[in-house]
Amino acid sequence: MDRLDEDPLNLAARLASALAGYGVTDICLTGSAALGVWATPRQSRDLDLCARVPAAAVSRILARFDGVAAGPPDAPTVLRLSFARWDIDVFVSRDDDAYDRACAARAAAITGMDVSLLRVVLPEDLMIQKMFKLRTDRRRILQDVTDLRALLETRGDGIDWVYVETWLPENEFFWMKSLAALSDEELLSRPPP
Questions:
Q1: Are 103 and 49 within one domain?
Q2: Minimal CA–CA distance to 92: which of 67, 123, 127?
């Protein structure tokens, strides 16, 4: 089976089971696979998760999954792993980060999957994470904006804007809230803050 033929949700469930053996908890699907749960699916070459990863397990996880870590050696922020020929980014949740705790607490079970180890971040958290990413990485800005628009179009009436406003600065919040109404031309003249 080609790596892009495997269902990302099944792949994520298998990986979550493997990671749980290393003491990893609060494993949540995010990125394009989460977008596929809440809005329009899109094909991607990697899988994104966020999770609590015990510091003592990092070196064993990296060795097992042919991985590398980004961030401080004693507290990496991202683990890049290889699993079933997929690139996996595990964004390491921090115990002392209020947003990380809130995101994990709100994550939902994935419909149709009987996997208690894997949940999916809610649409609001996926939107917040996209805005966090745009602060430092705009290499895929068009894809990120397209993803945000897809979430707003499919989930707009159900978005908990009070929650979103809690975690974003005012300028990012109002830009994102107006995104659905901006034309492509207006978006070019008013990029993300």
A1: yes
A2: 67
